[in-house]
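Appendix C reproduces, verbatim, an entry submitted by the partner laboratory led by Prof. M.T., so that reviewers can inspect both the input and the predicted structure.
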Amino acid sequence: MIAGRNGALFAGLLLICGVAFLAALASGSADVSFTETVQALRGVAPERIQSLVIELRLPRALTAFAVGGLLAVAGVLMQVLLRNPLAEPYILGSSGGAAVAALLAMMLGMGSLIVDLSAFGGAMGATILVFMIAHGTGSWTPARLLLTGVVLAAGFSAATTLLLALSPDQNLRGMLFWLMGDLSFAFEPARCLSLLGLLLVIGTAAARHLNVLARGELQAAIVGLPVRGFRYLIFIAAALATALSVTTVGVIGFIGLVVPHLIRIVAGSNHRVVLPASALAGGTLLIIADTLARTIMAPRQLPVGALTAAIGVPLFLILMGRNRPDRDR
């Protein structure tokens, strides 16, 4: 019964993902028919269509899928690490550190490569800083790590606001779009896809350990799981996924928060199912959001982070309403 339900879940997600991919490749300021899109994928379309679909839209769609998958996987891992269903990828200040470092590079007139490297370094540096402060002189607890991340994220937000206020007017639009998520220059999906594949393989293989740790550290220690080392691995994996996502497309919220909730409602709490299903659903959601961002007001493009928030907020409120205990009604 459970296997059949999970099979139906993956079949449905794959179908929706395939339709979302085709819609992303066919839609834009210059619409392409689905027939022409399939022909382009087969390499038999006219040169103009072939170039538009394969060289421009396909890398962007693949990047959207990879980043959405990474954010969803990071959300699953953060919720296991902190044992908190409201944990999400940016809670350790990764996005704030990336934003401050990237905006500084933009203010100094650096090129895109330096901006990307600055964002990645800022994200990883902020995450390490949160961990070092939370650790202190003893072992850290999920609550301590969570509070430290929230406080430092607030500090990074204030620094970001200050940098925007001091930036020249001609740089503000690019900075704001980056802060709200922008896939306009996302044409190299290989790094994100490689990391997503690696995390899925390792995470699925370690799903039993994730299941045990999610029930509590005491139970994990009783069954012989090296809790401290395993928490470090989860922390590094989630931080790396978040940092690469922020570096690639900027700050995109709610995917890592909403998608794992939705998958757990449908499939339960077995991470052998939750992890790959969340990656598939998160990637599909970001493809849909990016397609809408490109087409709603074409040829103008909207920041995709604003659309993920517009989709995520009401969906999350609906999920929270459905999960409210009877005694709260």
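Residues 325-329 have pLDDT under 50 and may be disordered. Additional entries are available on request from the coordinating office.
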